[in-house]
Amino acid sequence: MDVVRCTLCKDAVAPMYCEVCHIDLCKDCVVEHLSDTDGFHKVVSLKQFLLTLRYNSVCPNHPTKQCEQHCEECNVRVCGICVSSKEHDQHKKEDILKILTTKKALIQKDLLELKNSVYSKYQEAAENIPIQRADVRKHSEQEIAALNEQREALHKEIDTIVQRMMTEINEMDKQYTPAIEKQEHVINKTMNEIKQVILDLKSLLETSDVGLVCKYKSKIEEFRKLPPKLKIFLPNFLPQKINREQLLKQFGSLSIFSIKTEEQGYTMPSPEAESSPSARPLLDVPRLITDIPTYYLYNVSCLSDEEIWTSGDNKIMKLYNLKGELLKSVKTKSGYQPEGISVTRSGGLVYADSEDCSINLVSGTQIQTLIKLRDWKPRGLCSTFSGDLLVIMDHDVEYLSSDYDDDDDDYADDATKVVRYSGSTETQTIKRDDQGERLYSIGYGIKFLCENRNMDICVADHSQGNILTSDNDRIHIIGQDGHFLRFIHNCGVQDSSGLCVDSRDNLFVAELRTGKVKKLQYYKSTD
Description:
Layout: E1 16-18, E2 23-25, H1 27-34, E3 43-45, H2 46-55, E4 69-71, E5 76-78, H3 80-84, E6 93-95, H4 96-206, H5 210-215, H6 220-224, H7 244-251, E7 282-293, E8 297-302, E9 307-312, E10 316-321, E11 326-331, E12 340-343, E13 349-353, E14 358-363, E15 366-372, E16 376-383, E17 389-395, H8 409-413, E18 416-422, E19 425-430, E20 447-451, E21 457-461, E22 475-478, E23 484-488, E24 496-501, E25 507-511, E26 516-523
């Protein structure tokens, strides 16, 4: 049997085995491995592990035999009898211990990715469902209100039309009524005259007075001419047949309803998909790729490689493309400017509000409060690649005084800190790096941080108009383990404020006074 070498040092013989991490260990590396506080370990002798493995590797087809190999084509463990059988004779086989080690390592890697990355992403998606449901309900209510408003508008128009026609009818009534009354008066007067003439004629027929009869003159011609007939042409309402299609066009219509699923733009790449940034060398001089004109800036955060969220000295957060074109605007819940903004893995926008000491999530048209702070004010934040939130905060009341002692370490440690949150639970507090240096200066200067794909934390401190030091505008990068990596400077950055990185680890820097966002490359290309 080949000698088993230590997985860590690659040199010494490994008599021990960690059943949790599934690695072989020499005696010297056992101590170092057990001192790792990041996880639980169970180290046993390699011999004991192999005996246990052998005990658990009884052949399912030949119970008296132990399986020492694994058939890759059939994906089953096999014993010596199985190997010599025709069923597995031409199949590729591997040592079962090697297969076990490889599979356990894969299981461990998948477990960590599911726990630390994938599950948190699904949690975000689940948390977004009630917001999406509320958005749908709110949208439906708005559309129903719009329908009622249109209905009222149409009713109002119909009422106006009817009222106008009724007014016209009344006006016409006022005009033809006097004409009829005049005609009536003329006819009645003539009729009275005719009645009187009839009485007079009857008297003449009965009288014996020859003189009265001789004086009679006929008026029959006068009465034969009848009065003119009054002709009135009254208007008639001509109702049109209601055309539902035309009415629908006039009233309006609903747009097409559809339910679609789309791939999310924030799928986490597998560890093998891209080389780790920590394995890539840094450029000696960072390269300016482009600058994007916007407005007076404090913060910047990448929604994608082509779109960036920004915020400045007002309550409005704005989404731009790399051409500087405004795509979208969102107002803060409190009506005050945000202290920091960041985009989550699922594409939601989170912002810090020092006015009400809260961290908020913008999703669709809804703003949800995620975290409420007590005695601390948020001064900046970023959403990490693991789904956590890193929040910079200053003490709310006690450290507002300007007469602080910058050399008082206890005072400084209690003035400003960075806190890591998993959901709304505080999981880590960072005040200094491993060299004992404070990450930020004391006071309410503008402070920023961001994280790259290797979980390196980049921090910037804009107190007194400088970045971390008082002699130049520069940014420093802190490694995942807290070690200082390097400065980024001499790249034409002026009055730097917000920071963020895209999926290719290009660094976006917001310039406070120029209103520009500068895109910098500080890692060497992997091409």
